[in-house]
Amino acid sequence: MKPIGRAVDRALRALGLDRDIARADAVRAWDDAAVSVLGDDARLCQAVRADGDTLVVTVPTAQWAGEVRLREREPRRARRAHRPNDRCGCG
Fold first, then answer.
1. Residue predicted with more confidence, 44 or 25
2. Ramachandran angles phi, psi of 54, nearest 5°
């Protein structure tokens, strides 16, 4: 991380915004992580917000809800593989 990046990181932590930003990043990263794990049809499932440490995802059918619930840790691992310093505990 470059010096300016470290300064911004410290400022965000001091303001208590680092977790909020990590949550927003988790919502944005859902699509790619879900597609890498569940396939192209996972685009039908949309992350809408992070509620605490939980990523809230809308799904088109009960079958998709079951699949996402069954494999919920896999997209999280895929997302974290791309962002290892992520401070958000959300999915």
1. 44
2. -115, 130
